[in-house]
Structure formats: C-alpha cells, structure tokens
Amino acid sequence: MAISASASAYVGARIKVEEEVVRRVKVEEEVDGEEFGDGDNSNNHYKYQQQPEEEEETGPAERCDSFAAEKAAEQLLMTRPWKRRRAVGRLGPKPLLSQNRHRLSRLLDRLARAHSWKEASGTLSALLKGTPRASTLLEDRRNFLVAMEIQRRLGGKGGNYQTKIKKIYEVWMSKLVWTKKCSKKRYSIQLELALFYLSHGNIEEALNTTKFLVQYHDSASEPIVNLIHGLILYQMWYSGLPEGIKIKDFDLQMASEALDATSCDGYEGPEIFASSNGHNAINTEDANYSARVASQSSVGNEKNKFDLKIEVKKEIDDAFRAAELHPSGSEMNDDQPSNPHPHSNCSIFLAHGLEKSLLPVQLDHLTGDLEHIICSYRRLVNQYYNDAVKHLRFALHSTPPLLAAILPLVQLLLLGDRVDDALMELENACHNFSVALPFRLRARILEAFRSSQLTVIHRCYEDALTRDPSCNLSLERLIKMHRSGNYDTVPLLEMITSHLDATDGRSSVWEEFASCFLKILTSSVADYEDRVSANGQGGSAAIISSNKIPRVFTEGQARESWKVRCRWWLTRHFGKNVYLQDMQYSDRKLLATKAASASHIYGPNFEYVKAAFSSLTNEANNFQLSFLQAHMEKSMRLHENLIALSPS
C-alpha cells in the first residue's frame, strides 16, 4: 500500500509539472513567436483540463516523493527554452497549429505533384495564413514557387503577369523582416527574381534587381551574385551589337548549353558549333590544316589582307561608322585594355575554325582593310562590357572559385578581341581547378590562334581526358590530329583505352581503336625488319614472334593492367547481352568496328567476332565486312599472348 500511495503521489506531481511546463512554453511562444508564429492562439494548442481530485491524506513517504518530483520540475523549468520544448514533445502531443501546418504541407506537395492547381491554391492559402512569419528557406521557397506556378497556370500571362510575380516575391521577402540573420535568404530570393525576369526577356528589370545586390555590403562579395550580375551585363552588351554580327537566338542559356555540349557527348551541334569565320572546325580533316593556319596568320606577313568575297551589309557599316564618330565614354578611360599589336595573329579576325560556342559572332561577311575592321569592331566595347568582365572575373577568382564563370568570361574576352587575356585566364584556371573544362577550352583556343604549339595542345587534351575520360570532344580532337599526322599512335591508344574504360564508345572511337592496333602491329614488324637487316641475322620466324605482342603492352605495369582489362571487357563490351543490344539498337558500323577491336584483343575466333561476321555476311554489308576481314587477318591476339607470357 505504501508503494502504491507513493507511485500515485509521484504521478500527480508529474501531471502538475507537465501542466506548468506547457503553460510557460505557451507564454513564451506568445511573446517571441519563434517556433509556431503569432496571431490568435486561442485554438492553437490542446487544452489540458485539470480533473478534480479527491483530497486524501499522504504520509511522510508520499510527501518526500512529491517533494523530489517538484525539485525535478524546477530543474527542468530552469533549462533553456528549446530543451523545454523538446521535453514537452515527449510529455504530450504537439501543438495543434504545428500539426495542421505539417498536414497542409504534405497535402500541398501531393497536389503540386499531381498538378491539381485549383485544389493546391486553397491549400496554399490556408498554409500561408497559418504561417504569418517565415519558415525554413526550403519550405518558403516551395510555397512561393507553387504560388508562382498557380499564377502562371490559372492567372494567365497577360501584361501584368510579371507585376504579380514581383508582388509574390515582395511578400516572400517581407516574411524575412523579423529575422535578424536573413541577409543570405534575402539576396538568394532577389537572385531568383532576377532570373525570373531574365527568363522572360526583361533584361533591364533583371539588371536593376542585381545592381542593388552588388552595391549592398552583405552580398557584394558573394560569388554567385557577381556571376549572375556579370551574365546580365554580358547580355545587355551583346543585345546592343549590330544585328548582322550577332548569332541568331543567342541568349544567356547559350553558355550553359555550350558547357553541357563540350562536356561529353553533345559536341556535334547545330549552328552554335559552326565556325565564326566560316570554317567548320568539327569537320576539318585536311592534313595540311595546321600549316595553312600558320601561313594565313603569320605575324611577319603584315601585307596579308583579310580578303573575304562576301559583300558587307549596310547595317554593319553604318554601325561601325557611328562607332568611329562617337566612341563610348569607356574607351576614354585609362583602364581600357588595348591590343598593342593590331596585326597580331591573336586577333579573332584571324582565328581559324573556332566554334561559335566560344566566339558567338559572325565575322565571315566583313571585308575591307583589316586594320580598319579591327579598330571599328573594338569600338563596340562599352561600360556594360567592362563591368561584365569585372564581375565575372570576381566570381571566377573568389574563394571558393566558381567554375561556372569560366566559359562566359572566355566568350566575353574573345568577343572583345582580347585573346591573350582569355588564354591567361584559362592557364590560371588549369592550375586552380581539377576538372576538364579549362584544359579543353585552352586547347581549342590554342588550336585556333597558336596551332604551332602542338605539345601544349596535346597535353591539354590529355589532361582533360585524364580528368574526364568520358569526354568525346577531347578524344575526337586528338583523333583528328592523329589523322593529320600531328599525334602519335601509342598515346592515342592509351587515351582511347581510358575512354572505353569509362564509356561504351562510339563507332568512330572503336574504328580508330582497331586501327591503332593495326598500326602498332605493323610498326613493330617494320622496326624488327630494320634491326634484322642491320644485324644481318634472324628470319621470318623471328619476325612472326616479334609481332605477336608489341612492347607497348608489356613494358612496366602495362602487362598486368591489360590482362585485367581483357578479362573485364569480356562482359563489359563483348558479352552476349551486349552483342544483342548492339544488333538491336546500333548501326552496323559500330558492330563491325567493335568486332575488329575484339579480334585484336581476343582473336578472330572469339564469339563476338564470329557472330558479327556472320551477321554482316547475311546482310551482304560488303563495306563493313571488308573492314572486319582486314583486321581479322592481321589479328594481334593480345589476350592469348599476354597469358602465354605469364610465368607458369
């Protein structure tokens, strides 16, 4: 009985403690509103009704237990508020307002995913009314993005659409006023508003929005703020260029599209990847390509004129003459960069084969005196251009640096005919970043302006492939240089091998891969024949044994790595399921080139090779069949010979 009475007294004291904790927490919430917001709290929480209790006498043990419970309650009430709230959460149910917000939030997510915008509108209205102050950044962003989508779907896109969206952003930012540490939230919201204006073609409003951010001390040093402000200034300057030299439908999305396109598979593109000077850089196959570029862009050939036969458009001439008569104020500044060598081969007017993703202007229809054209073009630079370069540079050289700024900055420097500055920025970026993009861009610009630096160009593409083996663009450029005699076979084989370790490979890559095997095998035989003729000994048997496996596959760690790769590729590239996929979804060129490569690795009797040969024979595809037969007849049998060389 004593134990029962003691437990009953403890429970009674515990209930009183819980009621006191709840009362004090409610008072604090009404004062600061930190957890659940303010407003009418009459129905916000559960009411704890105190039940009438019968008076009963308690003994000394019961009074002692009650006293201990009250002391524990006092210690709990002396702790920090957030700890008390956590204790209340364990002691009783959550406040009703918090539960309803959670339910409305989940309901809004479901309605938005189902595109039930009318129902979502009512749910969002109730949720915002119950949240008079800001919530977390992610929840606020979700709520107001849904509000904008509802406005777009149900409110129409009339002339006041942007005004309504602006008001939504203003309401969003007004919810942050009460927060003391909300500067980052505020500028992130304003950046979203600027991007909204930009996506709807309202560049001036976007510029006005970001102009405040770069002047505000809390956000002026933020890299993302400077990046977006620089991009908007870039677009403002580009929109003011004469229509005849601008790329059709060029906008700020071009930078990100070009970045994606140059990253992996999308290098073959439409007009954006054509040459700015009328030379298609992607399809250039001429072996004398480098020699022609060096001849046409020689520094010593000062009498060489920029002779293009297409007639100059009147609009462009008028724009250039106006620029000569009325130079912009920024040209008067001492800070304005100038090119001390107007006839230098680093001018964009002498670039050969540079894609429009890097130089988004059309220069192929300008004719006349080269010096006059260059000087007139440079007068198109204004304050928008200079400010854009400044802010993009700030973003690129910030801590941490923003890689997203490298491509638009390089574009802008090239558009301003500042090729040396662009190369300098890329050289610094190659030291500061461990990604492939700066190396790839630097190699392409060096190819266009300094094509004689073959060693540097090779190293840039190799470094790009080392950092991103899946990059098709860098590999295709090396293949192109190899076909023109400017890149050796052995390093190309190594680059292709690392690429095929990371990707499935295109037909052109597999074709060059098989050709590399054949060239290495042929050169090995030729080298041995030279040694035999010099020493006067040996014979055909020695030649045959020498061509079984060239040294490039056996020196150092190459033997073990190739043995592992041969076992791995049995299932990765040449398994039965892979063959069925190649037969069903790929063209016959891929099938033939992969089979030719497999014949060099595993021999002509390998299952993939025999199946591909049979399929091409049945389809009477003579061209691909002859290609495959040529490689089967001179198979290297790499895997078989590597196993034979292993110690037994």
UniProtKB/TrEMBL annotation:
Residue ranges of the region described as Disordered: 28-62
Domain of life: Eukaryota
Biological processes, Gene Ontology terms: transcription by RNA polymerase I
UniProt cross-references to Pfam families, sorted A to Z: TAF1_subA
Alphabetized InterPro entries for the sequence: TAF1A (IPR039495)
Composition bias type Polar residues, residue spans: 40-51
One Gene Ontology cellular component annotation held by this UniProt entry: RNA polymerase I transcription regulator complex
UniProt biased composition (Acidic residues): 29-38
Signal peptide: none
PANTHER family, sorted: TAF RNA POLYMERASE I SUBUNIT A
Record-given protein name: PIK-related kinase FAT domain-containing protein
Species assigned in the record: Ensete ventricosum
Lineage: Eukaryota, Viridiplantae, Streptophyta, Embryophyta, Tracheophyta
